[in-house]
Amino acid sequence: MSVSVSDLVREFHEACGLEARDRPAEVSAKLARHRQDLIEEEVGELAEAAAEGGLAEFAHELADVVYVAFGTALVHGIDLEAVLAEVHRANMSKLGPDGRPTLRADGKVLKGDRYRAPDVAAVLRAQGWEPRPAAE
Ligand SMILES: [Mg+2]
User: Fold this and answer.
1) Can you give the C-alpha Rg of the chain in angstroms?
2) How far apart are CA 114 and CA 101, in angstroms?
C-alpha cells in the first residue's frame, strides 16, 4: 500500500491541530490569507535555494512548496490529487492524434483541436462541493 501526499499532509495537520476539511468549502478570508502567506514564504525560499543552494536544498524547498500546497487544499477540503488528475487529463489532450505535441519555438506545448480544458468545478462537485449561489 502506498501512502499519498494527501495522507501525509493530513497526518501532519491532525498532529498539529491544524484545520482540515473533508469536503470542499470556501474558508474565511483570514485563513485563506494565512495559507497564501505560507505558500509565498515557501516559494521565496525555493527561489533563494534555486539561486544560491545546492540540489538537496533546492529539492527540500520544492517539497515544501508542494507540501504547503497540499495543506492548503486540505484546509479547503479539496482532494488535490483528483484535481491534479483532471489537470493531467487536460494536458494530455494537448497531444495530436499521432500522440505527439505541437511545440512553440520556446518549447511550450500548444493546445490543439483535441484539447479539452480541465473541468475543476465538476471535480469539486464530485467531492461534495456546493457552490455558493451567485450574488445578485
Ligand atoms: Mg522551506
Assistant:
1) 18
2) 11
The CA 42 to ligand 1 mean position distance, Å, reads 5
Residue range 81-133, pLDDT digits in tens: 999 999 999 999 999 989 999 999 999 999 988 999 999 999 999 999 998 88
- Please tell me the distance between residue 131's alpha carbon and the centre of ligand 1 in angstroms: 33
Kindly indicate the confidence band of residue 2, based on its pLDDT and cuts at 50, 70 and 90: confident
CATH number for 1-78: choose from 2.115.10.20, 1.10.3420.10, 1.20.1600.10, 3.40.630.10: 1.10.3420.10
Record the pTM.
Answer: 0.89
Q: How far does residue 47's CA lie from ligand 1's centre (Å)?
A: 10
